[in-house]
Amino acid sequence: MKKSHRMQILVDLAKRKEDSVAQQLARDKAKVQHDMQKLAELKEYAQQYESERNLLGLSPYLTTNYQHFVDRVQQAIAQQEAAVGRAEQQADMSMRLWLQARSKTKSMDVLKEKNIKIEQTIEDKKEQRQSDEFAMRRFFDANR
Description:
The chain is mainly α. It has helices at residues 3-55, 60-142. This is Flagellar FliJ protein.
């Protein structure tokens, strides 16, 4: 088996790895978007309640309960912000892994192409040598 054929196997393996990492990256980016959307919804929810509280004339008891509820929503927002941060870190790590995998695939492909050129040069020289030998034999046979 020619070296370029063996290299093609390695290129194919690297490409599969790159595709796998790319799929993980896509999932991680989708999670970031989902988590950010959830955060935006929580913030909008908190804003609505805050503006409603200002419009309503609540008794002290209801104001306290209302404030506890708003505090829980703020805690949920803080937790969601942390989740967004973790999701972004995971997506960044996946991006770095994908860039590494892509670089490896490209490097192997370049090396494979180099081997193909070397093999072609060797094959061309072999054909030229055979052609020269054939021409020389014809010349000697014609002069006998």
